[in-house]
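Section 3.1: Structural characterization of target chains.
Under the original work plan, the team committed to producing a structural model for every single-chain target entering the pipeline before any wet-lab resources were allocated. The record below documents one such target. The sequence was received from the expression subgroup and is listed exactly as submitted; it comprises 521 residues.
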Amino acid sequence: MEEKNLMLEQIPAEKFRFVNQDERIHDKKFDDKPIGYFKDAWLRFKKSKASVVAAIIILLIVLYAFCCPLLIRSHSATFMANLYAKKPGRITWLKDLGLGIADGGTKRNFSERGLQSKLAIGVGAENYDGKHNITVSEAMDSEYMPMIKYKEQGDGYTGKIDTYLEVGFIYRSVEQAEYKRIRDWEQETGLRVIYPLIADNEYSYSFDMTDANFWYKVDAKGSPIKINSNGEAKRIRMSDDMVFEDNYLRDDSGNVLYYVYAGGGDQNTAQYKIRVLYYNYFQYLYGHEPEYVLGTDAQGYDMALRLAGGIKLSLEISIAVASINFIIGTLYGAVEGYYGGTVDLIMERISDILWDIPFIVLASLFQIHLAAKVGPIPSLLFVYILTGWIGTASTVRAQFYRFKNQEYVMAAHTLGARDRRIIWKHIYPNTLGTIITASALAIPSVIYQESNLSYLGIVKLGSSKVTSLGTLLSDSSSIWTNYPHLMILPALTISLLMICFNLFGNGLRDAFNPALRGTED
């Protein structure tokens, strides 16, 4: 006590001043400001970093689904090039940079004969008139050479090949007028489309005469050969200075033939059989080079657009189902939980009967008997809505049983509030966090179930106009070891959607929990 008095004596009197009773003496105002319900929910939601990241990922996936068709203007989602099916991603300007990224290439092992057949495509693209003796090393600089690089390894070869250029040459039957249009286009663009036909003789590849890539003389096994001055065939061994001997179809004067008459009447309807370099023929038909950011699927559709369509369809179905089941489940569960007794008993038995119906059986029956009349998507929605609301109703019912005997509810009863006001004004807001969480978690559940049904073939959602993530998985199930991107992309998308929606739902649960509601700092 003596020490305190000593300290007071040491403080000068001028440091003190009189203050009125109602005067503020603090620097900062501590008055609380009320916060709106949704603003308060947002403040709590953003505290969960995992939920925020999940929401951002979901937003990016949604933006991809809706913006991808707007960014890819060269072709639509219904565009299909079956000769370019199951190809990896290819972006022309990245390929031209030579970085080895998105160049349509894939690593592969080759036998000597297999490597020669791929190299011959690039050589044949330059030897378009049968007058050029081009070596393999010279043809490696050709823009149509499918082999990007190769090297000898063990008993064979390993290398990287452009799978789009690998298609090489194909046969086509066109009208004479079309033939003239192609020739005119060649003159305008400087790109060669039509190449010499191949002779059907003892030097043709006897195993498959429809393969237009064997333009050079081969033996019975398909190995390239050279005819010496004595008329003897000698097999050509693999080397950088290797030269293929052409087997082009020629007239009596030795000139190569670019077409043969294949039937028809006049000059406009006469059919010509021609041999075209498909890469340039594709540009003639569609006006652009083949470019697919994520490659193509098993049918030849653009994988980026098909994936966007699958995401969009899955999200539309899941959000529609979650919204409808949210409304039905909320109404049903609120009546059950609030009134209880006989009403609850009867309504619960109805729910039990519907809940015990196997989902797979119900989906199969609807697809067999209803899909033919209303379509597979409405039929699938009926399946989900028939039983999907039961989980939400059970959650709402439990929450109403929990809150309906609280003091504030009893006070509302005492003051004469109507049942409708008590249900929606006093009880329902306390259950909102749990219901929203359950509805948000229903979205990945629907996506997963729809993917399973599509994968198993119970629901047919694969067509030129519409597809689903499950259908993409189903189409790639037997070939994914050779073409992993067909399986990885939809599987990764499904996984991200399910994980992110679960984390997002957990964040919503905490955000809309009234017990955690506070005030702004």
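The first strand starts at residue 105 and ends at 110.
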